[in-house]
Amino acid sequence: MGEKGQAVSAPEETLIVVKPDAVKRGLVGEIVGRFEAKGFAIKRMQMTTMSRAQAEDFYSVHRDKPFFGELVSFITSGPVVGVVLSGRDAAATVRRMVGATKSWEASPGTIRGDLGLGLTDNTIHASDSQDSFQKEQRAFFNPAG
Ligand code: CMP
């Protein structure tokens, strides 16, 4: 039991990817620093420019969406930084810190609310579940071919 008698959950891992718009604007330190300040541990971190095949695999859940082509073009347009974070309830907590998908709707105090530009160029991606984390981690750090 932890504070207030609540059960203490084991640390969980999740993945964030700092997108090309944020890398170009020099915001890697600002973004990663927010998670460090919140107490998340950095387990793995890598800058890369994704290939088209890698991006299609990374975002395969969106393959049938009308915005898939634009999404893949954007994420391969420049360097990105993938970071595996570890901490309590990581996937949900990180996504609260990231904010709403549409940057203009994201609340002030969230990363997209403070730094996001648009919808495709919304500064950061974060895994939405443990299943997504496992799949996206493999696609990011161990791309096929
Ligand atoms: P992300 O969290 O990386 O997950 C999928 C991305 O698709 C999303 O952020 C947006 O950047 C992008 N996207 C582009 N168009 C849309 C749309 N119409 N609805 C949702 N996501 C979109």
Defining key terms:
binds adenosine-3',5'-cyclic-monophosphate; Alpha-Beta Plaits; alpha+beta; 4-stranded antiparallel beta sheet; 7 helices; 39% helix; 145 residues
Please sum up the structure shown.
It is built from 7 helices and 4 strands.
Account of the 3D structure:
39% of the residues lie in helices and 19% in strands. With 145 residues, the chain is of the alpha+beta class. It has one domain: Nucleoside diphosphate kinase-like domain (Alpha-Beta Plaits, 2-Layer Sandwich), CATH 3.30.70. It has a 4-stranded antiparallel beta sheet with strand order 2-3-1-4, sandwiched between helices. Helix 3 (52-58) packs antiparallel against helix 7. The longest helix has 12 residues, at 130-141. The termini are far apart. The mean pLDDT is 95. The structure holds adenosine-3',5'-cyclic-monophosphate (CMP).
